[in-house]
Amino acid sequence: MSKKIPLLDLTAETAALWEELNEAIQGVLREGRFIMGPNVKAFEEECASYFGVKHAVALNSGTDALVLGLAAMDIQPGDEVITTPFTFFATAEAISHFRATPVFVDIDPASFNMRVDQLAERITPKTKAIIPVHLYGQSVDMNPILELADKHGLKVLEDVAQAFGADYQGRKVGALGDAGAFSFFPSKNLGAYGDGGMLITNNDSIADKTRMLRVHGARKKYFNEVVGCNSRLDEIQAAILRVKMRYVDQWNEARRQAAQRYDHLLQAVPEVTAPAAMPFATHVYHQYTIRVPNGQRDAVQTGLKEHGIDTMVYYPVPLHKLPLYLPMNLTILEAERAAAEAISLPMGPYLSPEDQQTVVAALRKVTRV
Ligand SMILES: Cc1ncc(COP(=O)(O)O)c(C=O)c1O
Description:
The protein is built from twelve helices and twelve strands. It has helices at 10-16, 18-31, 38-51, 62-72, 89-97, 142-152, 204-214, 235-245, 248-265, 297-306, 333-341, 353-367, and strands at 55-59, 80-83, 101-104, 127-130, 155-159, 167-168, 171-172, 179-183, 197-201, 281-282, 288-291, 342-345.
C-alpha cells in the first residue's frame, strides 16, 4: 500500500518550529504564571494590531467567542439571529444557548457561503443579529450584509473560526462586523496545542462585557456583577500561538499555492468540481473542498481511504437536519446538496506537490470505477 497522506500534517509544522516552541513553552514554565499572564496580554495586543482593531479578548475556544460575543450583543430568548445551515454546529449552538432562534438562509453553491441576497426577506422585528461564517477560509460577501445590518440596526458577529488572515476586498475578515469570533482549535490555520479562541472588536462595550464575562462576570476580582463563565486562554497556549502567528501569513500563502496546484491537477478529473475562488476574497484554504456529484461522494471517500488518503466531510448533516432543529421542518436545497457532495482533500502549509499528485491520481482512479 502507498504512503499514508493525512488531512493535515501537524507534526511537520511542529518539527519546523521545534526550537522556538520549546523556548516559548519553557519561558512560561520559568515565569511560573499560567493564567492571564504576559503572553495572553501580548498575544491580545499582537492580534489587535494584526487586525487593526481596538480590542482582542483571548478566550478558551471559538465556541466561547461566539457565545460571549452574542451575550455582549445582548441576545435574549426569542430573538432571531440569521446564519447559514452549512457550518459547524457551534455557530447555531451559540444562538440556541440563549434560547434565541437561528434563522437559516441557503448557501451559494459556488462558495458554500451564505446567500446574501436571501437575507433581507428573512429580517423580522425579532431579528437582532447576523452571523456570517467564512467557511473553509473564504470570506462571505460582506458589504451587502453590513449595509443591511446598518439599515435595520442589527449586529454582525463574524464566525472567523476557519479564516484567520483571510481578506475581503483587501480588508481582514473578523474586523468587518461588530465583532469577530476566532477558534484556535489545533487544526485551524492558526491553531493552539489545545483549545483556544478570541473575540476581536472595535466596540468598547462589547469588549468590556466579553472581558467581564470570561472571568465569572467580574470587572474586579471577587466583585462579581453578573453570571459569567470561566473562559480564559491558557498562558502556555498564548505563548505557542505567539510563535505560530509569526508564520501564519506565509502558511496561508503556502496553502494558496497548494490550492493552485490542486486546481491545475484536478483539470484531469472532470467528475469532480474544484472550489471556486470568489473575486472579492483572498482565500486562506483552511479546507480545499471539492464536490463529487451523483451520490458518489461516500464511495470516493472510502476509495481514497483504501489508497491511504485521509479526507473529511465538512459537514455531512446541514444544521436544519440535526435533531435540535428538525422540528423547524425546513428544506434548504443547496445546503443539503453540499452536505451530500462536499469532501475536503488533504491540505496544509507543508503539503508537498508529490503528495498532491498522489491524491489526485487516486481520485482519478476512484471516480472512474
Ligand atoms: C465555523 C466554526 N465555528 C465555530 C467553531 C468552534 O470553535 P472551537 O472548536 O474552538 O470551539 C469551529 C471549529 O471548531 C468552526 O469551524
